[in-house]
Amino acid sequence: MPEKLRVVPLGGLGEIGKNMMVLETDEDLIAIDAGLMFPDEEMLGVDLVIPDVTYIEERIQKLRAILITHGHEDHTGALPYILRRLQLPNGRLPPIYCTRLTRGLISVKLEEHHLLSDADIRVVTPGERVKLGGFTVEYVHITHSIPDSAALAIQTPAGMVFHTGDFKLDHTPVMGPPPNLSRIAELGRQGILLLMSDSTYADTEGYTPSEQVVSDSLDRIMANAEGRVIVATFASLISRVQQVIDAAKRNGRRVFVTGRTMMSNVQMALDQHYLSAPDNILAPLERMRGLPPERIAVITTGAQGEPTSALVRMANRAHRYIDIQPGDTVVLSSSPIPGNEVLISRTIDNLYRLGAKVLYSRIAKVHVHGHAAQEELKLMFGLTLPQYFVPVHGEYRHLVMHSQIAKSMGVPEENIFPLEDGDILEIDERGAQVAGHTDADFVYVDGLAVGVDSIVLRDRKHLAGDGVIVAIVPLDKHSGKPIGRPDVISRGFIEGSMSEGIMERAREVIMEALDNPQSPTERGDFNSRVHDALSRFLYEQTRRRPMILPMSVEV
Amino acid sequence: MPEKLRVVPLGGLGEIGKNMMVLETDEDLIAIDAGLMFPDEEMLGVDLVIPDVTYIEERIQKLRAILITHGHEDHTGALPYILRRLQLPNGRLPPIYCTRLTRGLISVKLEEHHLLSDADIRVVTPGERVKLGGFTVEYVHITHSIPDSAALAIQTPAGMVFHTGDFKLDHTPVMGPPPNLSRIAELGRQGILLLMSDSTYADTEGYTPSEQVVSDSLDRIMANAEGRVIVATFASLISRVQQVIDAAKRNGRRVFVTGRTMMSNVQMALDQHYLSAPDNILAPLERMRGLPPERIAVITTGAQGEPTSALVRMANRAHRYIDIQPGDTVVLSSSPIPGNEVLISRTIDNLYRLGAKVLYSRIAKVHVHGHAAQEELKLMFGLTLPQYFVPVHGEYRHLVMHSQIAKSMGVPEENIFPLEDGDILEIDERGAQVAGHTDADFVYVDGLAVGVDSIVLRDRKHLAGDGVIVAIVPLDKHSGKPIGRPDVISRGFIEGSMSEGIMERAREVIMEALDNPQSPTERGDFNSRVHDALSRFLYEQTRRRPMILPMSVEV
């Protein structure tokens, strides 16, 4: 009986974010990454979205490890929410493998959730091999928009699996060595059964530029700006922080850091010597006062217009230390995550209203993204020469486009599997096929609740659109029949002037609906009659359909 | 006493959309455009947003006309909602001036609102002059992404005002002549007091490409596609429809039109000879069956992912006549309006899931926008040589960037006024200044209501985020004291499993809150005690703050 390998994406395939991939044999199971995604506008009230790990829970005795490829939240952010659910039969949390900077970033998050002391995080050096049951994993150094990123070469009983993680081929990275192409080529020559490769920018022609482009821009901006230069970026983009520090240093500016996560990450990266900040160039915000503006640079969170971020507080004149003034230059060193465009745009406009000049990726080269474009993806096929291919990380169209690239690079069409979350791909020496599907729905995190169900979201959508009407119907406790006048209140439905007349008539509509010769036997019957009559009346009057909550009370 | 001109933007300055500009003297008032904007994600349940015309209403006896520059909804869409409010003292609706195609598009909209028979629409030919009280208006032909677009040269008692409308300088437009640069130059030589110029793309370097670029792309796509070619665009983009018809004709395809507004507009444009569709190339959808796919082209609405549009119905397998199949090519011939990115992205992915190939502006030259880039804006200054400048149409940053262009072209800084909606600019021969501010808030249209107030929206936001709790507290009708067990229900708050225990304990929390030795005198006091206790309890338990509606009922 040949060894069968199961490949089960729990996140990141068919949508962007919450990346998580399972590899499984009859004896062992490992998970690659455990990311989160941010809710879209229809996920009302939801704080964040994580993968459904039920599939792993049901096989918990086989779980050997969670392998993290790099420190971005869409690959690590679900860890605080899933670790306890993935407690091993021996009572311990599953080991997490990652590189050194990734450990630092994960530790900051786990500490916030009081999970760090129980977690078992093991640092892997690229080149080193780790045996995990029947799997042997090697971390292979690769480049992305965060240092210490890794691809994974996983020897399985069925053959070698190569997972790129998120990557671009940056030959002149800001930190660390260029990608280890020669090791990847060597693995390719030895034979790769299955390639899983980053599809996020599979719709983009050509090559993705090196991070060095941004260094040049920052240098020019810091040299020419007459006032302060305030750079907003992702808190995990440690190499971008280094670029800002370097550009500030070359231009005689001191650097101030603001934003809670940014400050934690910078401190961690300094402690671990990932960031170098010579000559005490970093200073606490309280020291900014008195320094001439042309000697100031600021690093902040908020490049996505996040409502509570430091940059948005500045734009709203609500930051404790920084008042935006004419002469300030604000640099948004990121590209908009889809869905954030309106928030970002509002932030830019508010900064302009305060007199700042704002530079963003549409009008200046202040950001390059971290994902391979089409020519780099082709190069990856040229190096790995895989037998099978599964495109990972991307919306469905990216997976299809990446599949087309695979085909153009000689992978046989029947060996290419554009899976979606929950698909179960089985590979053995006789071939590969999608053998089933497991639940891999979005799991919503809202406040302290993990797993908000879809009825709650459907109700919120209803409430958001047309508001709510509560109708209280008094029932005689002896006869069970309606008596007296119903009470009706509304919220989020209709404005004052129009409201009074309608609410008054709504009471009459309720009384008419209940004034029925047949004697009803159940409360539910009252309620549904009130609901239907009110719903019809309000729609006729307003063309809206508020949520109607009839409540009968015995008096 | 020198004649004073007042310039009052009621929309379109500091935000994109709902364009409306007022010009006013002591005797006369004219409005330029009356557009709508679509709600952003925070305007929950709102259908659309129109300008506040209170300023005009208060001066209704001076209103001489509404001048429409072109037929796009952000310049015409508010007409059905404001015309009745702007009834003249003589009982008639104010005259609307516009070019011929614009009249056709406005008529379709007014007919839908049963306003066409009462409306007074007057067609103006470019070059013709119209006297409106002390104003004399000349329509000047210009190019934009819709035919029959006009700039306005308005002779006022204070001097000549030139308003560009929306424009780009397309020397090879798909329909109609190129922009009348020589007339603009002549007006400039005669002396322009005030230029108001389109700022929408003031952040973009260079020149905007001609519409011809799209013709070439469509031709290539129709020639190479093996299956049907389905082109989605704005229903008002009549010239794009002509481009699709022409490309289909050259490639032996018949053209089918779907989408309600698209069908109305195409019919109107055919009737008015704006569209030419020779050889019965257009056919009704029922005839598509049986025709080979390579002989079919479809024109549809839905390029912005609008949930009820024909294209989105196709993507969701819910279109009556068109089932998307492998081999179909879908072209999104538009660029995303900010805020629509997620809807568009979802539509593209769903089309890919059905096997279609999708071409959109990020990956193919299937759209060019209709607004002047920086070099064209400079050229406009070179032709008009204005004394004063007000940038129009754009978010605040665009107005600032356009102001910088004005300065670089020699307009004195003190003569440049980046206004925002509601600012009142006064110009006379002694100079210009912002002399005041009037209300120019968003007016929300929701169902049949025009003017949803901000409390309703605030409540909807609250409901959308954390849902609602209704708590019914029975009071003894004799003693006025709470008796019996309160009833608590929730919607949109919390899912089943967590809910029961919390709701049970919430009842106890309410009873404790009411079990107070002091004898309260008012119902409101009960309600606020219930509200506060419940709010505190639920936040502790869930970290959420649902809307709490306590209702006391006498039993």
Which descriptors apply to this entry?
homodimer; 6-stranded mixed β-sheet; alpha/beta
Explain what the structure shows:
The structure is a homodimer of 555-residue chains. Chain A is an alpha/beta fold. Chain A has 15 helices and 28 strands. Chain A has an 8-stranded mixed beta sheet. Chain A has a 6-stranded mixed beta sheet with strand order 9-10-11-12-13-20, with helices on one face. In chain A, strand 12 (159-163), helix 5 (181-190) and strand 13 form a beta-alpha-beta unit. In chain A, helix 6 packs parallel to helix 7 (238-250) and helix 14 runs antiparallel to helix 15. At the A-B interface, helix 10, helix 12, helix 13, strand 26 and strand 27 of A face helix 10, helix 12, helix 13, strand 26 and strand 27 of B.
